[in-house]
Amino acid sequence: MISSEERSLIRARLEKKIERTKKKIERMEEMTQPIGPENAIGRVSRMDAINNKSVMEAALRNARLDLYSMKKALNHLDDLDFGKCIRCGTFIDIKRIIYMPGSEHCINCA
Hints:
The protein is mostly helical. The chain has three helices and no strands.
């Protein structure tokens, strides 16, 4: 069971991580803008830029998934079963929840 002090700590950590992730997503969105053909760069440089764009798009998808899981955890923080592994039903170690607040699995099921 998670104490109220631990819930407060988790809430503060989640809110901080959510804000950082939102800023990170904004930066990534700027980096994934289309590369216009009018830019005077060479063919190899354009190919590198396109490759980097696709890598950044994958990172952006992961950041959005992280943001979703953190918001979901924040919304369910006051639920009685918050902190239970969704696979085995045991409570997740508080250290894991503090480190990865959006985690829904214990270390054994992860």
